[in-house]
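Lab notes, practical 5.
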Amino acid sequence: MLVKNWMSTGVMSIRASDSVQHALKLQKEGNVKILPVIDDGKLVGIVTDRDLKKASLPESIPLDISEAMYITSKIKIHQVMTPYVFTISPDSTIDEAASIIVNNDISGLPVVDEERRIVGIITRSDILKTYMSITGVDKPGYQIAFLVKYIPGLIGEIIELVSNYGGRIGYVLHSDARAPIGFRNAYMRIYDINSEQLPKLLKKMKEKCTLRYVIDPFLDKKEIYEEL
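Output from the prediction step:
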């Protein structure tokens, strides 16, 4: 999945010479938390809702509304913006964007072309939407988590089992995070399997792996076999 397919376009931006008051107005009108700062058509920084709140409401100075408005009309964006900005290209992957956002604890990334012209923005919310589309949370299906030995082809055998019992795989994700050495935690969503076949499938799966949990959205039932 590429950033360009999931980013928001038509991004609202602001100039470095604009006032904090103007930025607050744009932020409210557009319901956005990040405003790219543009000069000569190129990205020179970003200003976030936290930057604007900090500039408009100094903690050490009690202000009334008129005083706050006066101050925000005088403070310029270049005084409060972050000039050294993490960016990403439209042809980067969603995984790359997620890694930058999480590792640097930021709310989003400006998407720029080779000349640093902004073409969009990708936020935490956008990334969550991509993963929701992959996992199919809008389509009810059985969710099964299991611990499996790190043996090539073993997860494939479990996928084949699901098929043998009439199930259709929505997704299979696996990771060695929180797993013993030599094992992986795997997560599977299954569609179309008959409720009478599910216990038989689970019995066969137990011969190849250790079940962690099974979630049945149709009966609103959760079985926790072993904590992660």
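Observations recorded by the TA: The CA atoms of residues 94 and 127 lie 7 Å apart. The chain is about 30% helix and 25% strand.
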